[in-house]
Every structure is written in C-alpha cells, then in structure tokens.
Amino acid sequence: MLNPYRFFDPEPDVRKIAFELYTSVKDLPIVCPHGHVDPKLLAENRPFPDPAELIIIPDHYIFRMLYSQGISMESLGVPTRDGTAVATDHRQIWRLFAEHFYLFAGTPTGIWLAHELAEVFGITEKPGADNADKLYDQLQEKLASPAFLPRALFERFNIEVLTTTDGAADSLEYHHKIRQSGWRGKVLPCFRPDAAIDLLRPDWKQEIAALGKASGVDIHDFNSFIEAIEVRRTFFKKMGATSTDQGIVSPYTHQLSRAKADALFQRGLKGQATADDAALFTANMLMEMARMSVEDGLVMQVHPGSFRNHNRIVFERFGLDKGADIPLQTEYTKNLHELLNKFGNDPRLTLIVFTLDESTYSRELAPLAGHYPALRLGPPWWFHDSIEGMTRFRERVTETAGIYNTVGFNDDTRAFPSIPARHDLSRRIDANYLARLVARHIIDEADARRMIRALAYDLVRGAYKLS
Questions:
Q1: What is the pTM of this model?
Q2: What is 48-148's CATH topology?
Q3: In whole angstroms, what is the distance from residue 40 CA to residue 184 CA?
Q4: Contact, 463 vs 441, CB < 8 A?
Q5: Residue 309, class by beta-carbon neighbours within 10 Å (0-12 exposed, 13-18 middle, 19+ buried)?
Q6: Domain parsing of the chain, residue ranges
C-alpha cells in the first residue's frame, strides 16, 4: 500500500506541516496546460486495448530504461517507421516489463507507476515475474469496464482542463468531435509550429505545403508564410487554444528584416539552407511569435535545450520521441536579451520558459523572471520532473523570483493514466518545500497555505489564461 506520508521529510515537525498543506490541496481539480495526450483518445472514447498498449508501448520513460539495459524496442512492441515486424504478444511484453520492474526503483517513473497501479487500478502488488500474468488479467478486466473508458477516467481524475499539442497544419478534427459530442470535458489545442519553422527538417517543404492548404494561403515567400501562421493561430484560438509552444535547440532571439528573412526562406524552399541559416531563421521566428502573442494574446511557451534524436540508429528505425532526446547546456541571459528588450515589458505578453539545464536556475532564469513582467518560469521538465528535481528548482528559484513568477505544474505526458500520479507528486513536493520554510520560520503557516494553493492550482490557471 502507498504510505500516506510518502516523499515528506522524516523530521516530525516538517512532516506534520507538509501533510497538512498537502491535504488542503490534494483534491483540487487538475489543470493540464501542456501535454501530449492524443485528443483522438477522448474523441472516440473507446476502451484501452490492453495493459501493454496502455502503459508500456507509448511511454518512452518506460522503454528508454528497458532499452538502456539491453532490452530491444522490438521486443517491447514499439512500432517501427517502416512497418517491419515487432512483438505482437502483448501479454509477453507485459511479462518482460514486469520481470524488469525493479529497474525503476528510485526513479520518478517508478513512483508514477506505483501510484497509477494502486490508485487508478487498485493493484498494490509490485509487478514481477511471479505475478505478471495475474496482474495482466486484473488490469485487462478493469480496462474492459465502462469505469475505465477514457472519458470516465478524465472525470474520475478531476481534470478541469487538458491541453494537447498540435501541429500548425493540424485539422483539429478530434477537437471538433469532442465539441460536437456534447461531453462536458474541456480539451483544448495548443499551437506548435516546430515542423514549419525548422528549415533543416527533411519534411519541411511538405509541412509548408500542408500549412498553405490548411490556411488557404499561397505560401511562396516569407510574408505569405507569416500570413499563414497568423491565420492558423486565429483558427486555433477559435477552437479554444490559449497557448503556443516551440521546441528549439537554442533560445537565441534576433529580429531580421523581412528581406533577410525571405532570403533564408527562399534558400529553404530550394533545399539550400545551412545550419546557420536554420538557427537564424528560428531566432527571427521567436521574435515573430512573441509579436503575434502580444497581438492575439496567446501564451508563448519555449522548450529549449534538447539534442533531439541523439541515437541515430533508434531514430532511423523507430522515429521521433523514443527516449533519445538528451539535455544540452543552454544560455538564456544573452540569447533572450533582444526578445525581452522588445516585448518583455509589455503586459500583453506571457512568455513561459523551460529548461533542461539546471545550472541556469539561480544564475539566469530566476533573475530574469524576477524582473521582466512578461517572463514566467515553467516547472521542472522531463528529466527534472522528479522529487529531487522539483526540490532543486524551488530551492534555487524562489529566493530570487518568488513562486508567483512561476506557473505551477504541468505533466507534459503522453501516458494518460499517469496524470494524477504526476500532479500528486508535485503537490507533495511543493508541500514539503513550504513546510521546511515554515519550520525554519521563513514563512508562516498562512503564507504556506496561500502558496500551496497557488502552486497546485491558481498559478497555472492564471499563467495559461484558463480562468
């Protein structure tokens, strides 16, 4: 059984205060302003196929650990890009996972899985070789029941709003279906134009063609490209979007003249763009996206600092998002200087910046967010969405930026059943951090109660304009 005091400090005074703070927010609605749950899941509301299809195959947090221990992705049923054969016996895939469940001890994935199994599915045994088949059958029985349909879980999880991540040319057909179904669950799109902005993507020209078709704009130069982006942002906003997102290598920002931007765009169309061209084009597009956000009010998110698809063999065989994206050292003070000087004082802009480089928390990000009105810090992301990662973030950011220049928590997940586990962990760690401050008389209990509610609920709703 899960210990109700899990993750709190063992020191009695801190533990008592932490538990009281956590209890005050544990039942608040869950707000998911950034994630990768497929809206098709909730539009069609079909039963999940089986435990392996639900828990293992789509979750790179799980199969990257198993792969690191020499277990092939083919044996875990991860689909290949060319459709070549992979394991199809999902019971055997589950057995393989259960036999190696011990690998996740001490990791956030292990914590999420324990919560998911116990709280969502009522399973309190650790998976292992001896009980794999029994647990598979128990899970399969539950997944076949109406109580475990996606929409039923959405409501049971007390999700107030869930935001997906959608390409610039996406039709949002499943968002339309959700709206037309009469279901009251709030599922919003988020505008992510990465595929249209990276001149070096192999499919960039195909994406530009798709963007032109979706927007109704004949894209032949930079001006028409910008027009198409603006048309699509308007469409997304009409469909309920409150935010945009960009995954980039560097947060370097620089404004180009329209003529210089068009020269880069034309080189891209001709297949002649260099790495320097692509970096400069992205830097300019960050400025353009900030301008658009000032004008249309969409919150601007920036996720920099990931070396995507580091393992080329895995990428060539299995494609994107297969656990081989690795953090990079990232600089913010100089790179964001031009954007913040042009837009950072404008109250119409909300810019939420994430990082995979923890060394920047106290040196750069907290001082920047503690000054510029437009800038907010996203929560610990990806490898740092963990007990120690969230604690380090609070310790290194709060003294300089406070908590009100941060945006609470988002789960950034594809694994739908893990959502409550991730939010529960965040609420516990924030409660523990605040309890330490109370125990040391840095803040009083009234401050702590106000702050824990802000971190669990109020900040995210405000920052992402979901109020």
A1: 0.97
A2: uronate isomerase, domain 2, chain A (1.10.2020)
A3: 16
A4: no
A5: middle
A6: 12-47+149-463, 48-148
Q: Which long-range contacts (CB under 8 A, 24 or more apart) does 177-182 make?
A: 177/43, 177/44, 178/39, 178/42, 178/43, 181/43
Q: So what's the architecture of 12-47+149-463 in CATH?
A: Alpha-Beta Barrel (3.20)
Q: What is the pLDDT along the chain (467 residues), one digit of tens a residue?
A: 799 999 999 999 999 999 999 999 999 999 999 999 999 999 999 999 999 999 999 999 999 999 999 999 999 999 999 898 999 999 999 999 999 999 999 999 999 999 999 999 999 899 999 999 999 999 999 999 999 999 999 999 999 999 999 999 999 999 999 999 999 999 999 999 999 999 999 999 999 999 999 999 999 999 999 999 999 999 999 999 999 999 999 999 999 999 999 999 999 999 999 999 999 999 999 999 999 999 999 999 999 999 999 999 999 999 988 999 999 999 999 999 999 999 999 999 999 999 999 999 999 999 999 999 999 999 999 999 999 999 999 999 999 999 999 999 999 999 999 999 999 999 999 999 999 999 999 999 999 999 999 999 999 999 999 98
